[in-house]
Amino acid sequence: MSKALALPVDELEDLARRYARRAVETLAEVIDNAEATPATRISAATAILQWGYGRPGGKPKPGEAGEQVIRLTWGNDP
């Protein structure tokens, strides 16, 4: 069963900020987990670095883009 959620960017950012501390703590646990695969640990480290220092080519400059909506989809159904 697939689930989808479409939110305006500002609402998604607000939701993410509410879970930021827990998310970073979880990612740090993954980085420190010797049983996690190297790829998983690198993904966790990359996420933390991008959140802390920004993602190359990240947010558009003011006035460059109109309203943005991000769609999140999870589950196995197409």
From TrEMBL:
Lineage top rank: taxon: Bacteria
Name used for this protein in its record: Uncharacterized protein
Organism: Dongia rigui
